[in-house]
Amino acid sequence: MSKVRILGIESSCDDTSAAVIEDGVIKSNIVASQAVHEKYGGVVPELASRAHQQHIVPVVDTAIKEAGMKPEDISAVAFTRGPGLLGSLLVGTSFAKGFALSMNIPMVEVNHLQAHVLAHFIKADEHDHNQPRFPFLCLLVSGGHSQLVLVHDYLNMEIIGTTIDDAAGEAFDKCAKIMDLGYPGGPVIDKLAKQGNADAFKFNKPKIDNLDYSFSGLKTSFLYFLRDRMKENPEFINQNKLDLSASIQRTIIEILMDKFHKAVQQTGVKEVAVAGGVSANSGLRIALEQYAKEEQLGLFVPKFSYTTDNAAMIAITGYYKYHQKLFAPQDITPQARMGL
Ligand code: KG4
Ligand code: ZN
């Protein structure tokens, strides 16, 4: 049987990425990040779509070349349809249409959230059999989403908990912004937290009975707490960056883990996973490892390159949909909002 080679394209936010996957094995994964947003403290949609337009052709070209292939070798092109920024999604979607049409190959639309979860199925080589078994629970934590996903099968996922306001990544980014740490703030807080005392400050956690998350209250209490302290001492933030980072990170992790425990108990799963940008967080990784060890659960943590947005996860999702002949029509349009 001939090999199935999927070109994946991701352009939902501020990373332009292209990847090639051959029979489930990664061949290349190129990501061009957009530094242009840093000085604005967040992603500027207009600038993002313009940068995608500049990056998409060289990024795809490099991904195909690095895979040791030519455009004619590709079996299908998978692209992110949503959720994300409409202008950004349009660039990837339009490129995929043009590529599919000119090469006379099918197109596969991919849900970005489903792709974050399926990143766990990207094989490093043909002997890599270290993948989760169904059903498993995945904590999906990114800049836009915080969800507890019960994964029944590759293309059958159930959201059993979700955020009612901000996402965990947003909580990291907003708290970092309050402390003037730059954007995106998650990785900065992670780094500073390693040298700080996580018990130094206490912040209130939300009281929600079901499996849903909430992070906006935490951000507000952090803001008010700092406003009061800064009135007494204008150097308070500067003098306490390490302890503040460690304490806020610890609170976010506790909020995430509380519901995670509850979800494992409710579902009775034996294997768990984490996905999305926040899964790069070292404190969260340690908390998950400890918990999985205590409860004797199989734990799957993605490679760092598959935590934040990347096209390898789009290509692997496209690979599973390709086998089911779930192809997209040429008149397909991107969708800013999309559930799992
Ligand atoms: O999955 P992702 O790249 O994009 C979305 O789909 O949203 O996630 C980006 C988010 C940002 O909020 C960023 O601050 C956060 O992931 N992030 C982290 C870390 N690395 C990235 N948060 C905490 N610790 C990290 N090490
Ligand atoms: Zn993402």
Class based on secondary structure composition and strand pairing: alpha/beta
Biggest sheet character: 5 strands, mixed
Choose one word for the global shape.
Answer: globular
β-strand number: 10
Query: Using only CA atoms, what is the Rg?
Result: 20 Å
Strand content of the residues, in percent?
A: 15-25%
CATH architecture of the largest domain: 2-Layer Sandwich
CATH topology of the largest domain: Nucleotidyltransferase, domain 5
CATH top level assignment of the largest domain: Alpha Beta
Q: Note the run of SSEs as H and E.
A: EEEHEHEHEEEHHHHEHEH
Write out the CATH superfamily name of the largest domain: ATPase, nucleotide binding domain
Domain unit count: 2
Q: Can you walk me through this structure?
A:
By secondary structure, this protein is of the alpha/beta class. It starts with a strand and ends in a 17-residue tail after the last helix. The protein has nine helices and ten strands. α5 (185-193) packs across α7 (236-267), α6 runs antiparallel to α7 and α7 (236-267) runs parallel beside α8. β1 (5-10) and β2 (15-22) form a beta hairpin. The chain has two domains: 5-129 and 306-323, 2-Layer Sandwich (Nucleotidyltransferase, domain 5); 136-302, ATPase, nucleotide binding domain (Nucleotidyltransferase, domain 5), CATH 3.30.420. It is globular and about 65 Å long. The structure holds 5'-O-[(R)-(carboxyoxy)(hydroxy)phosphoryl]adenosine (KG4) and zinc ion. Residues 13, 142-144, 169, 172-173, 184-187, 190, 276-278, 280-281, 308-309 line the site of 5'-O-[(R)-(carboxyoxy)(hydroxy)phosphoryl]adenosine. Its EC number is 2.3.1.234. InterPro entries: ATPase_NBD, Gcp-like_dom, KAE1/TsaD, Peptidase_M22_CS, TsaD.
